[in-house]
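=== RUN LOG ===
request id: a7f3
mode: sequence -> structure
chains: 1
length: 158
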Amino acid sequence: MYIRPIKKTDDAPLAKIIRTNLEFFNLAIPGTAFYDPELDHLSLYYGKSPRRNYFVGIENNELVGGIGIAEFLMDKNICELQKLYLKDDAKGKGYSHQLMNTALNFAKEAGYTAVYLESHHRLTAALKLYQKYDFKILAKPLAPSPHNAMDRFLLKEL
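=== RESULT ===
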């Protein structure tokens, strides 16, 4: 797999990957990324700021997943890790680690001091990945979020 920044042509296949994953985990509900207004136009959303980026993984010329970094609490210089999802046939190959490393390196280079994320207890593989990267579990969200169906909140100091 190789990794590159998102392009407009990635928007539709990426939205499908994200929605398919959320449907599988019974998370196609309000308060999740499933209903994010920018989900069908992620290239536009992540292109609005130099401190945002979304990286896609490509295997055999096919988009297999991605991961994003965007501003979160700017007064505290904290970004948010967003929308780490892979196609089913790309799981178990170490791609999530490659995407995570790319996103965390971008966050450091962009000058963030910490990375926040919201997840759900049903996303057990993702939660294990975050623990491997030293994300610490928080008792509550750092700030109000449109993803109010999420029930796991994590933070990693950079």
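=== NOTES ===
Strands lie at 2-5, 53-59, 62-73, 78-86, 114-119, 136-138, 152-157.
The CA atoms of residues 34 and 156 lie 25 Å apart.
=== END ===
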